[in-house]
Amino acid sequence: MNSEQIEYWNGDAGVVWVAQQERLDRQLDALGRAAFAALAPRAGEHILDVGCGSGTTSLQLADAVGPTGRVVGVDISLPLLAAARRRTRGPHVSFIEADAQTHPFAPVDGVYSRFGVMFFADPFAAFANLRRALRPGGRVAFVCWRSVDENPMMAGPMAAAAKYFPPLPPPDPHAPGPFAFADRGRVARILEAAGFGAVGIEPHDEPVGGNDRADTLELALNLGPLGRLLREHPERRAVATDAVRDAIEPFIVDGVARFPTATWIVTAKS
Fold first, then answer.
1. Chain centroid offset of residue 225 CA
2. What CA–CA distance (Å, rounded) separates 106 from 154?
3. Residues 131, 195: contact at Cβ < 8 Å?
4. Backbone φ and ψ of 70, nearest 5°
5. For residues 251 and 260, what is the distance between their CA atoms, to the nearest angstrom?
6. C-alpha to C-alpha distances, 59 to 62, 78, 82, 201, nearest whole angstrom
7. What is the DSSP letter of 250?
8. 200 - beta bridge partners?
9. Sign of the Cα pseudo-torsion (24, 100, 10, 94, in order)
10. Are 13 and 46 in contact (CB under 8 A)?
11. DSSP per-residue codes, 157-192
12. Is 254 left (phi over 0), alpha (psi -120 to 50) or beta?
């Protein structure tokens, strides 16, 4: 059981992500579409969207597979799933609360994820389970972050606010979290151990943003490791806000955020 992540995403984190849905989707859309293009969903296919969150990517997939296809979004967060279900259009897209490490999925043609596969307590078990869900010749495509140092969208605000908090222990690079798949070799080992073939792990660099100053600041203060830290220490929020505002300012162009990002586009076949 992925109990720690289930508790986290069903608490304040899930509620916050629902509140930030529009800003977050605007910021991440281009990266999700890069993985979407790698999967190339076709009309009539059945697709599993892992870590579907509030459902934006599931709806995009549903448009691609059409009324003769089917998309199932899976997530462990009830707040995010509730938001996704409110947006559902048509019977060919549905959402389930399940842990993708263990859930017995019905057979699908493809597995997709936009930043939803880095939070498994046991990624080896999770990807073995997802491979079992794929029909022969089925495929997987997902986007995940490379290292935090290559992604100033998250590294900059965290570094700017760090002086207002007690020193943090060095993070376990393989612990469930946004950067758990930064190591390309580890990702390859996980997929190969799960029985996947034709594994491809390609670097993808693309600027993202699209939000104005105020919305970009809201995202930086509420999501990711910094958001978690501020929820644990709300008394530090005021002083951290000024530092984070300064950290994001170099990335505001004509009033709109534009951050460089570094991700992997990962593909494989069953």
1. 14
2. 36
3. yes
4. -155, 140
5. 9
6. 5, 18, 14, 25
7. G
8. 267
9. positive
10. no
11. HHHHHGGGSPPPPPPPTTSSSTTTT--HHHHHHHHH
12. left
Task: Name the pLDDT band for 206 (thresholds 50, 70, 90).
Answer: very high
Residue type for position 70: R
Least confident of 148-157, 166-175, 257-266: 166-175
CA 97 to chain centre: 16
Handedness of CA 152, 148, 129, 37 (dihedral sign): positive
More confident residue, 88 or 125: 125
CA–CA distances in Å: residue 23 to residues 86, 88, 159, 220, 232: 18, 19, 22, 11, 23
Q: How far is CA 213 from the centre of its chain?
A: 23
Q: Residue 12 in contact with residue 18, Cβ under 8 Å?
A: no
Q: Scanning the structure block, which residue is given the tokens 């509620």?
A: 15
Q: Please check whether residue 213 is in contact with residue 147, taking contact to mean a CB–CB distance below 8 angstroms.
A: no
* Strand residue runs (E) in the chain: 46-50, 70-75, 93-97, 108-114, 134-145, 197-205, 208-212, 252-253, 256-259, 262-269
Residue given tokens 């222990």 in the structure block = 169
d(CA 43, CA 67): 8
**Beta-bridge mates of residue 252:** 257
pLDDT for 1 beyond 70: no
CA 262-266-268 angle, to 5 degrees, is 175
CA torsion, ordered 261, 217, 75, 68, to nearest 10 deg = -70
Q: Contact at 8 Å (CB) between 209 and 257?
A: yes
Amino acid at 160: A
Statement: the pTM of the whole predicted model exceeds 0.85: yes
Q: What are the tokens at 211?
A: 């939000």
Write the DSSP symbol of residue 223: S
